Structure prediction request, 317 residues.
Amino acid sequence: MRLAATLLTGTSIVLLSAACGVPLKEASRRPAIRFQEYASVQLPSGFRAVDAALLSGGRAIVVGFASAQVLIVDTSRRIIAVEEGALTSPIAAVFVSRDSSIEVIDTTPVAIQRFDSEGKAVERILVDVAGDRLIAATRPNSGWVFLLCRNASRCRLLWLDSDGQSVRSMDLPTSTLPNDRARMPFSITHDRESIVVAWRSRPFHLGRISHSSEAVHYFDAPTSVEAIATLVRPGATGSWLAMRPVVAGNKILQTLTNASADERINLSFDSTGHISSFSSVFAPVGVAAGSSEGDFLLAVRDVGEHELVWYRIADER
Prediction:
């Protein structure tokens, strides 16, 4: 696979198309996907975002792990903090209805905390994870899916129903994971039909697991991702770390971060799991969430303090 060059313009990110077997100059002339900046909101001083979710129309939830805070934010810069003291160590949150009520996953102890649309705590459900460490969580339908790890060679997915009860569990293949990434070897998200699992270190595998099957269907991504990292910074693929994938409509987006510089590679995957476009951005910004309709993208930008940035996703042209 040969891959296109990249651009960053003042208020927009341009993802240039990748093409199999096409020379670099020719591929760079192919249509681009544009993320046009729509709005931005400065988060409270000291708030460090670790997760976010986006509702149709632009309303967002953003999770701060260290500060044990969850904020409800909209593009008019209105910020609502959920009820103080209701959370200890939150890692994920999602809107669960059109009236913007939300669920937050807390880790100490592991629980599903429910809030109304104004951030008032209404219910807390404890979840039994059998002594495993909760690494990440995503909510595809009426119940959550947890990523749990006992150690670097023993991780699993746990499906829950709407009451927080276990429905099924599946071990993940971890035998090839490097020991230095043992703390958080995977990240997860979901699309309409499956859980998407990302291996955070090289060779950057991505795979889909359907809600009714235990087979992992790998994306055709590892070689492509390493080719991009090599193209942007030859010989430095070992310094890249893959962040949690983000689903926006029928697109799957992922950010690779360079541990030694403020450099990000934003990847876009098509429905077959191939890289369709990418951008290299020399700025501390990462994709955090996408709308289900695929019209908005939410990013976190580090300008000393964290800032939320909304992008409109333009059609490929």
